[in-house]
Amino acid sequence: MALKKPQKGNCPVTIARFAGFCGGVAMAVKGAEKLLSEHQVYCIGDIIHNSFVIESLKKKGLETVSSVKEIPPRSHIIIRAHGLPLEEIAALRKKGCVIHDFTCPILKKIHKDIIKLKRKGYEIAIIGNPKHAEVKAFVSRAGARFGNRPAARSVARVFVISKIKDTDGLSYAPRRAIICQSTISSALFVSHAAKALGKSGETLVIDTICCEAKKRRKEAEELAKKSKMVIIVGDRKSSNTMTLSGIVGKYCSVALISSADEIKKNKIKYPLAIVSGASSPRELVLDIARKVC
Ligand code: SF4
Which ligand 1 atom minimizes the distance to the CA of 23? Predict the structure, then answer.
């Protein structure tokens, strides 16, 4: 683990190597900035879970809307890193919108895998939050009918498991694939998948937790073991930030903040480590580090 220590005097603060945007978010933000220099651009839902970045993109002309209905015909539209349900993409095409797809490549791969599994006759169960944009995009692909082959016609059911008791409502399926939201904790995935196992003839359990999220968690856990406090830079709306908070909280105090203004210097404990969710820019992390040294 290579760590950067911006220290003033003897201030023992360690910044996580993986703090800052993840690859998917960096691509979406960079893509949006480039587009905004040429067009007004719409996005359904917040482009990322970070109010600073959203505000800065808004100043450059990004319009965040909550549904396709609010987007004028033939507009430029960004698909954010979480992806978009197929029905919404179809509605945007019908309106003649120019679609710029910044769905994270890791999630695009899961979309493709869902479609392949459905074609092979697997019913899909998704462990995650049904209200999360990423899960809605999965559900749309898992519930859609593709092609005319008998297997494809017969498989159009999808089930979202957000709480362990949801598995009680899982009906029997001859073949089922269990996947998960890319940012949930491994412990939650394993416990929920284990409970769902007996509800199908043949079951495929596929760990779709993002590898970048896993690296961040491992690093955060190691830092938490050596620290009295960990600052997590991120938004409470961000699933990966909340998962980090659960992991770090087992070892030391946690301060979850989304801006340098929220730092309460008298409450900071040292040695201190700083980690971040995937939607927090590295500059913000460094800014916070300067204030606590
Ligand atoms: S956390 Fe992982 S899956 Fe989600 S946007 Fe970032 S790289 Fe993609």
Answer: 7
Domain 106-205 classified CATH 3.30.40.10? Answer: no
Distance CA 240, CA 213 (A): 7
Name the residue type at position 119: R
- The mean pLDDT value of the chain amounts to 91
Q: Which of 3.30.470.20, 3.40.1010.20, 3.40.50.720, 3.40.350.10 is the CATH number of 13-21+215-292?
A: 3.40.1010.20
| CATH number for the domain formed by residue range(s) 23-103 | 3.40.50.11270
Q: Please, which residues have CB within 8 angstroms of residue 111's CB and are 6 or more apart in sequence?
A: 83, 103, 137, 138, 141
Q: Give the global pTM.
A: 0.90
pLDDT digits (tens, 9 = 90+) for 229-268: 999 999 888 888 999 999 999 999 999 999 889 998 889 9
Residue having the nearest C-alpha atom to atom 7 of ligand 1: 24
Counting every residue written for the chain, the total comes to 293
What are the pocket residues of ligand 1 if the criterion is a CB atom closer than 6 Å to any ligand atom? 22-25, 81, 104, 106-107, 182-183, 210, 212-213, 240, 278
